[in-house]
Amino acid sequence: MTDPNNPNSTQEQQSIQPAAKKMIVDSFYVEGWRPTAGWLCVAGLAWSTVLQPMLEWVAVLCGSQVHFPAVSSAVLMNLLLALLGMSGWRSLDKFNRVDTNGIVTQK
Predict the structure, then answer these.
(1) Which domain holds residue 23?
(2) How much is the pTM?
(3) N or C: which end of the chain has fewer CB within 10 A?
(4) Total domains, the chain
């Protein structure tokens, strides 16, 4: 592998190295769990704050007494604050220019 900071290495060699490192580190667990948790949190908050009250209001206007299932807002807020906290730490790492490219997960 070539050093991306080396001015003598070609552009093609520099583009291959990050792709090779990315292939080693990428997995669904590493990169998929945070977006999945974020989207579940967004969907739950959308349901509990917008969709459920609107649907119950429409049901009452139509003469029905339907009660849709409720989602615990406390659990969703805990998840949201945890995700925001982790992204804040990651932003701090980027601001301080912490090199995280050397982190390799065990397989």
Answers:
(1) 11-94
(2) 0.54
(3) C
(4) 1
